[in-house]
Automatic annotation (TrEMBL):
EC number(s) from the headed UniProt entry: 6.3.5.-
UniProt keyword terms in alphabetical order: ATP-binding, Ligase, Nucleotide-binding, Protein biosynthesis, Transferase
KW Nucleotide-binding (keyword) present: yes
GO molecular function: asparaginyl-tRNA synthase (glutamine-hydrolyzing) activity; ATP binding; glutaminyl-tRNA synthase (glutamine-hydrolyzing) activity; transferase activity
Gene it is expressed from: gatC
Protein name listed in UniProt: Aspartyl/glutamyl-tRNA(Asn/Gln) amidotransferase subunit C
Family label: Belongs to the GatC family.
Length: 95
């Protein structure tokens, strides 16, 4: 598999990046170098190697969900720049 300059330009457009010709060429070379390096992994003999999702064995790392009292609303809103009816008041983001 190989990355072309057209592929780089397409991804740059999706990411809303402006790349000049030299940057496009450099990115194409760098991405192809990464792919060539990744292709070397196909040369490894992985027969008998168990797939892993994490390098360290993990047991449940989540804490128990315990009910506890909420903070008083006065304390929560103490540092709010603006509040209305016990809620944070923020500028409208939709018209």
């Amino acid at each position: 598999m190989s990355i072309t300059a057209k592929d780089v330009e397409h991804v740059a457009k999706l990411a809303r990046l402006r790349l000049d010709a030299s940057e496009t060429e450099r990115m194409t070379e760098q991405l192809n170098a990464i792919l060539r390096y990744a292709e070397k992994l196909n040369e490894l003999d992985t027969d008998g190697v168990e797939p892993t999702s994490h390098p360290m064995p993990l047991s449940n790392v989540m804490r128990e969900d315990a009910v506890r009292p909420s903070w008083p609303i006065e304390s929560v809103l103490k540092n709010a720049p603006d509040e209305e009816d016990g809620q944070f008041k923020v500028p409208a983001v939709l018209e």
